[in-house]
Write a structure and sequence with these properties.
4 helices; five-stranded mixed sheet
Length: 128
């Protein structure tokens, strides 16, 4: 099997993933994913597509992450891994789609407007 690459995004985070056959090692920015994501919640998010497809110990994953925060990066990585699993075996698409792992979350931060303290918050109105 050749190396398969895919891309995942969430908020401002971007994940590029390279998957090859192996023993289930996940490396993120030259670190083990458990070291990069110390919280179990984010480790679970990263492993989700592999658990759905039942391929946790079959592939080695190398990922480059940049931008965004920890949660955005974890979810971008999840999307990239799910897309790569579909490239490896198109039959995985139905399982991953049923779990909503192939949907890119389109929500982004709304920009701050001039004359306001935040995007939607207004300064207090003064009648007099």
């Amino acid at each position: 099997m050749e190396i398969i690459n895919s891309l995942g995004r969430r908020k401002t985070a971007v994940a590029r993933v390279y998957i090859s056959e192996g023993k289930g090692k996940i490396t993120v920015n030259h670190k083990d994913y458990k070291e990069y994501f110390p919280l179990e919640q984010f480790q679970y998010i990263v492993k989700q597509p592999l658990q759905v497809v039942a391929a946790e110990d079959q592939y080695d994953i190398k990922a480059n992450l940049y931008g965004g925060g920890t949660k955005g990066q974890a979810e971008a990585l999840r999307l990239a891994i799910a897309r790569a699993m579909v490239k490896i075996d198109p039959e995985n698409k139905e399982k991953l789609k049923a779990q909503k792992l192939l949907t890119r979350d389109p929500r982004e931060v709304e920009r701050k407007k001039p004359g306001q303290p935040k995007a939607r918050k207004r300064f207090q109105f003064s009648k007099r």
